[in-house]
Structures are given as C-alpha cells and as structure tokens.
Design brief:
By secondary structure, the protein is an all-alpha fold. The chain is built from twelve helices and no strands. Helix content is 84%, strand content 0%.
C-alpha cells in the first residue's frame, strides 16, 4: 500500500490528490443522501434516486483508485438534505444537490486530460441533471406558479400597505390590526381569483382547488411574517424596519427556491422582485405622508 501511494505521489501533485479527496467526499456524501431519500419514498422516483446513488458510489470508487484512501461522508449534509425533502419536497432537494454539483463539473473538466475516467463521470453528471431529474414531478413544483402569485402579491401589496399605514397612523398595534384584516381579506380574494383563473383555463394537470390553496397559504404566511413586528414592538418605526427586513429575507429565500426549482438566475429573480417591492413601498410612504397631512390624522 505504501509503495503504491509513493508511486502515485511522484506522478500527481499534493494539491491534485487533495482535490481528488474532495471529489471522493462529495461523491460518497451524495451516495448516502440519495440512498436515504430513496428509502423514504416509493414508486418511480425511488428507482431514479437509487440509480443516482449507485452512480455516485461508482464515482467514489473511481477516485479512490488514485488516493488509496477511504474518505468519510459529510454527515451534516445527509441530515440537512433529509430535512430539506420534508420541508420543501423531493424535487427541490434533488435539484439543489445537482446545482451544487455544477461547480464540481468545471473542476472535472480541468482533469479530463489527466484522468481518463473523468469523461464517464461527467457524462453521468449530465445525465443526472438533464434527464433523470426532469422525470421528477411533485405537487409543490406543479403549483409553484400559484405559490409565487401568493407570495409576490402579499409582499408587494402588504409591504406597501404597512408602509403607508405606518406614516399615516403611527401606532404599532393599530397598524398590525389593520394589516391582519387587510392581509386575510386579500389572501381570500387572491385564492378565489386563482381558483376562477385555473377553472377557466381548464388545465387537466392542475386542480383549481389546490392551486387556490397554495396561493392562499403563501399569502397568509407572508402576512404573518410582515405583520408580526407591529404586534411585538411598541415603536412603529422599529416595527416598519423589521417588517421590511423580514420581507427581504422572505424575498431572498423564495427567489432562491424559484431559481433552484425552475433553473432560473437567482440574481435576476431577486432583483426583479426587490425593485418592484421597493418602488411600491416608496410610493406608499409618500401616500401615507400625503394622507396624514391632507386629512390631519393624529393618533
């Protein structure tokens, strides 16, 4: 064993060997992640994930020939992705893993001339990304448009409403109460509109009732996130600041979710929604000041 390693060390640099160990750890980690997820589901998706898991183990053993060492998996990643599956669905977790593998693919390309097996590994990775994962379908992905509608409308409408009310009323509890009433009414309105929209389009792959449910739930969750600071904090300016921060966090999270599931640019999705939201908040500020001065509101 020692002789073999010394022979390889003269052929490959220390940095190259360390890079290969990194590949090993990624491959063995992904092997266990896909296997754990596959064992928790049934049907076609189980077979797809088991195939990916076996491919990742094969890749691990290929790289092991060059290091002659066993590399342990990153256990925290296994736990993390199992949690992601439960919270956000199989498609999101699988696509997130494949998105992370894209950075490794470029390093693989740099080693094509040095390691003959790299071509087959790259081919497998492309198949995982372009063919295997495209077969995975879930309600959470199918109804992503409805979720976007609910969250985006809530962020734009309620952020603007709360900003305007903050300048007009200047009372945290009163603003919070008005925000809850407005938010719940708007959520029901949006859910109803989505139901009628899906019903009129007569899409066979979408249930109008489920589409309206996802729209309403996304809207209500956003309402809770934005209104909570007004119910918890005494000073309306502090509540407004935290509400805006919460909105940005929600916007960041959801933009990332969309970029992974829909294979879109995170930066483009985030800044587009951020620009719209910021414009509405700014205009609402001006409206709040105008209303307060025009009607002499003093609370």
């Amino acid at each position: 064993m020692w002789v073999i390693y010394m022979e390889q060390e003269t052929k490959y640099s220390k940095d190259t060997i360390e890079m290969i160990k990194g590949f090993q750890q990624s491959e063995i980690t992904e092997h266990y992640v896909y296997k754990e997820i596959a064992n928790s589901i049934k049907g076609k998706n189980k077979d797809i994930l088991l195939k990916i898991s076996n491919d990742e183990l094969l890749h691990y053993n290929i790289w092991k020939k060059y290091t002659n060492e066993d590399v342990p998996p990153q256990k925290w990643k296994i736990v993390f992705y199992k949690l992601i599956v439960k919270l956000f669905g199989l498609s999101f977790a699988a696509k997130l893993m494949e998105k992370n593998e894209n950075s490794a693919e470029q390093k693989y390309k740099d080693l094509v001339n040095e390691f003959k097996e790299t071509d087959s590994i790259l081919k497998d990775e492309y198949e995982h990304e372009n063919a295997v994962l495209s077969m995975i379908e879930e309600k959470k992905v199918k109804y992503i448009g409805s979720m976007v509608l609910g969250l985006n409308d809530a962020l734009v409408e309620l952020s603007g409403t709360l900003a305007g009310l903050s300048l007009a009323l200047r009372n945290s509890k009163l603003i919070g109460l008005a925000g809850i009433i407005t938010g719940i009414a708007a959520a029901m309105s949006m859910a109803s509109a989505e139901y009628l929209s899906q019903k009129s389009e007569d899409e066979k792959d979408k249930n109008p009732l489920l589409a309206s449910f996802f729209t309403g739930i996304a809207y209500i969750l956003t309402v809770i996130i934005l209104v909570a600071p007004y119910l918890l904090l005494k000073y309306y300016i502090a509540a407004l600041v935290f509400s805006i921060i919460n909105g940005i966090i929600a916007l960041t999270f959801f933009s990332f979710f969309i970029s992974v599931v829909k294979d879109k640019s995170f930066k483009h999705t985030f800044f587009e929604m951020f620009a719209i939201n910021s414009t509405v908040i700014f205009i609402s500020f001006l409206v709040g000041i105008f209303v307060r001065k025009t009607f002499g509101i003093d609370l």
